C-alpha cells in the first residue's frame, strides 16, 4: 500500500469529496501559504470528516510556529497529526504532543548521502517517532512549490527510511515515481488543482493510479496504522 496524502484542502466539501476518493490523509495548511486556512475552517473540516464512519487522518501543516501554539491549535481543531514544514529543529519535534511529520527540504545540490545522514542524526535527536516527508524548497516557499527533485535521490533515501515523497507530483507521473522509488507515501497539492482549486477528477485519477500499483505483500499498511494510531513505530527500515 502506498499512502496517499492530499494537501492544501480549504473547505469541508472538498475534504468530504477527497475522503470519498480514498485519501489516507488530508493536509490543512495553517502556516504561511496561499492555501492557508483559518482555525475556524480547520475545525469545520475536521468536524465534517468525523461525521463519517471512516475518515482520512488530518494533518495540520505549520511553518516556524512556536510549539505551544501548534499544540493548542491541534487540540482545538482535533487534528490527528502535525506536519512541520519550516526550519524547525529535530529537537523541536519532542515538544509536539501529536504524531509528527517533518518536512526534509531537498535542494538540487544536496547529495543523497548527506540527506540520509541528516535524517539519521535527526531521528536520534528527536527521541520520538517522526515520519519524514521529502519535498523541494525554493528561496521563498516551504513546500507547495510544484517542483520535483531528483528521483534518484528519492529512491536512495526511500531505501534507507520510510518516507513520503512530495514535490511536483501529478496523475501523469505518480505511477513512475512509485514504480521506481517505492515510497511509504505520496503527497500532492498543486498537481491535482485546476486554476488554483482542487480538481476532483485529477484527484480521482491520482488515487486510481496509486491504488493500481499496490502490492498485497506490502507492509506499509501496518507501519502507517501503528504510527498514526499508536505513535509507537520506529521509523527506520
Structure description:
The structure is a single chain. With 237 residues, this protein is α/β, with parallel strands linked by helices. The protein has one domain: TIM Barrel. The strands form 2 sheets. Strands 1-2-3-4-5-6-7-8 form an 8-stranded parallel beta barrel, surrounded by 5 helices. The protein has a two-stranded antiparallel sheet with strand order 9-10. The longest helix has 15 residues. The radius of gyration is 16 Å and the shape is globular. The two termini are 16 Å apart.
CATH class: Alpha Beta
Give the % helix. 25-40%
CATH topology: TIM Barrel
Catalogue the unreliable spans: 233-237
CATH superfamily: Aldolase class I
Domain count, please report it: 1
Strand content bin: 15-25%
Overall 3D geometry?
globular
Tally of helical segments:
8
**SSE string, helices as H and strands as E:** EHEHEHEEHEHEHEEEHH
> What is the alpha-carbon Rg in Å?
16 Å
Write the SSE topology:
Blueprint: E1 3-7, H1 12-20, E2 25-29, H2 39-49, E3 57-62, H3 67-77, E4 81-84, E5 100-106, H4 112-126, E6 130-136, H5 151-160, E7 163-165, H6 174-181, E8 185-188, E9 193-194, E10 197-198, H7 200-212, H8 220-230
Parallel strand pairs: 1-2, 1-8, 2-3, 3-4, 4-5, 5-6, 6-7, 7-8
Antiparallel strand pairs: 9-10
Helix pairs in contact: 1-2, 4-5
Summarize the structure.
The radius of gyration is 16 Å and the shape is globular.
Note the main attributes of this structure:
8 helices, 237 residues, two-stranded antiparallel sheet, TIM Barrel, alpha/beta, 10 strands
